Amino acid sequence: MDLKIAIQGIKGSFHHQVAQQYFGESILLEECDSFNEVVRALKANRSEKAVMAIENSIAGSILPNYALIDKNDLHIIGEYYLDIHMNLMALKGQKMEDIKEVHSHPIALLQCEVFFSQHPHIKLVESIDTAETAHRIQKHNLKGIAAVAAPIAAQMYDLEILAAGIHTIKSNKTRFVVVKTKNKELPKEEINKASLKFELDDTPGSLATVLNVMNNCKLNLTKIQSLPIIETPFQYAFFVDVIFEKYKHYEKAKKLLEIMTTHFKVLGEYKQGKP
Amino acid sequence: MDLKIAIQGIKGSFHHQVAQQYFGESILLEECDSFNEVVRALKANRSEKAVMAIENSIAGSILPNYALIDKNDLHIIGEYYLDIHMNLMALKGQKMEDIKEVHSHPIALLQCEVFFSQHPHIKLVESIDTAETAHRIQKHNLKGIAAVAAPIAAQMYDLEILAAGIHTIKSNKTRFVVVKTKNKELPKEEINKASLKFELDDTPGSLATVLNVMNNCKLNLTKIQSLPIIETPFQYAFFVDVIFEKYKHYEKAKKLLEIMTTHFKVLGEYKQGKP
């Protein structure tokens, strides 16, 4: 039976691209309107796993998605780094000079600023979603209009790519995580990365002490992000990702952190993705 | 002469509200289309200072603005924490039952999800900006349409607030920074906070060592955020905010960090805002 995967967005989105590249082609996609809806799909068992964008090399952490994972006790069971490639696409047979308007998500348009400054005759129109715009062009046979979207959108909606890789900053990586409601996907030997959350009092040096312990246990930090706890001033929460070679080292650190920090929580234990 | 302050957005925006509360009422506002435009206004001396949102208690750091400050060598000379209050506003005399549509920025609409779920007869329409929508309602005398925007927008565009504080998560703080092209606003005695950026090799424990040094110099961390340096794998950059009681302690730490880290940079030295 095909694996059911929930994503935010529709077929042809970057989330769809990640789901395909991570799980292979034979998946059943549950298209959700929002990340909240993705969580509901998992909890209602309509989908077994979900793919969620979690941080971007340009815009940073997507904290609302961290909060969703945390609040709903989801587990991160894998990660995937996608190089975001923006492509200009239109109905087959359309040429660059036929295009009068380009529709896409505001962020996608912004990321292609330099390209469009070289084509000043094209009017930029903001839309809700990259893939939905591609879909709309196909559905209504819209001539003179192009979309900026993922390569997979051209494939899904039978469009022709007029220009590939039109984003300004060429290294535009987004990190996605694979989540589910239950943990323990992998045998311990295959786990070499973990995402942790903990809180610390505002005692001087408390974070340094925690990092020293991690270092002594041979854990290597790949990400750290502090966030103030709104209800409790002078109390901080941290999202931390660590990589390690031996699970037993990580287990030892985990025991120490449980004692040294408050509200210690493992958001996920998984195999490191290729950055 | 009135102080010229650049903001992203128009009169009645949250940036405008911060500019007024930080500098007082007698400012000349330079309304900019984008944060890039804000930077241009400063560099061309059209404005002396600018106000920029830098992090949000819900969405986290606004890394593109960090990047703008860093890349353009701007200096943070102050900070301000604003409690974001979303208000529903319409033409004077309009009642709640008259409202058929609410227009606002998608994020603002999302932040008021629970309120609108209690008013299912109202259609939600996404627009580019909160304040611009309020302005449009006034300009075209639009009946039956309300905007979600800052209280100051109602004041600017002579609208009536139909419902105040309609955002779901009540503690929705945004941190703004005040920036200019030259540093040294304040005498050393008044400075008790600094924003720093530095890079570290991926040697185990390098961050813990740096934090230990800060701690020994009596610097207290209020924010830490790692970001991978895209061009250099296994090299990390950190944005760090520290508070301190004595400037000389901070000066000592600065000298040590210059030696211990690479690309050490002070993004700003200023007086801590009230969180």
UniProtKB/TrEMBL annotation, chains A, B:
Reaction catalysis annotation: prephenate + H(+) = 3-phenylpyruvate + CO2 + H2O
One GO MF term, please? prephenate dehydratase activity
Q: Does the keyword Cytoplasm apply?
A: no
Q: Where is the ACT domain?
A: 195-271
Reported EC number(s) for this entry are 4.2.1.51
A single GO BP term for this record reads: L-phenylalanine biosynthetic process
Q: Name one GO cellular component term.
A: cytoplasm
| InterPro entries, A to Z | ACT-like_dom_sf, ACT_dom, Preph_deHydtase
- Judged by the first EC level, this protein's enzyme class is lyase
Q: Which key words tag this protein in UniProt?
A: Amino-acid biosynthesis, Aromatic amino acid biosynthesis, Lyase, Phenylalanine biosynthesis
Give the pathway.
Answer: Amino-acid biosynthesis; L-phenylalanine biosynthesis; phenylpyruvate from prephenate: step 1/1
Which segments constitute the Prephenate dehydratase domain? 4-181
Which PROSITE patterns does the record associate with it? ACT, PREPHENATE_DEHYDR_3
What is this protein's record name?
prephenate dehydratase
Q: Which organism is it from?
A: Flavobacterium profundi
